[in-house]
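ok trying this again, last paste got cut off
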Amino acid sequence: MNQIETWRCWSEPGYFRRVWSDLALQKHREKGTRSASYQVKRAEPVEAGKD
């Protein structure tokens, strides 16, 4: 983060909040896809065992 971006954070009330929410969304999305694929991998052998 350079000085101009830091200055914008403090001069624009919504700027920091927007960047923070973007980061949170990105993290949440990554975690969601990772856990979803993890659940799918775990579920496959169980389904195969039932058959």
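PB: full thing came through this time. The chain has a mean pLDDT of 68.
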